[in-house]
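Operator note (shift B, R.M.): manual run for RNA-directed DNA polymerase requested after the automated queue skipped it. Running by hand, logging everything below so the morning shift can see what happened. Input copied straight from the record, untouched. If output looks odd, do not overwrite the archive copy; leave it for review.
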Amino acid sequence: KNLFVVPENMIYSVIRIYHDEMGHVGIDKTIHGILSHYWFPCLKLRVKEYIENCVKCLSFSLVGGKPEGELEIFEKIALPLHTIHLDHFGPLEATAYGYKYILVVVDAFTKFTWLFPTKSTTTDEV
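Run finished. Output pasted below as returned.
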């Protein structure tokens, strides 16, 4: 079967169309869709990296990470900054400075949220 070769500057546009606009389908379906019409070097690797860094997919995915502990119910105190919640979001595509995660801090009372870029999720950095 003859396939169109995608120019380097259009590769991520093609991946975006077949992944994002088709409902954030998985790696195999995205690759299958692209290969029905197109080809480009390192297709499988590029699709895999794109999907692993897709913010929308990361937001709704429970893949990876450490298993959660048991939930505990805390008394809600009506005082700002009495209780804060922390969590990491990521990994994302690394920035020029090497940041791959976002530390999310939420005040339980006001719901005010702070976001801090981090290079890892270790306690040493946090």
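Quick read of the result: The mean pLDDT is 88. The two ends are 52 Å apart (CA to CA).
Leaving this for review. - R.M.
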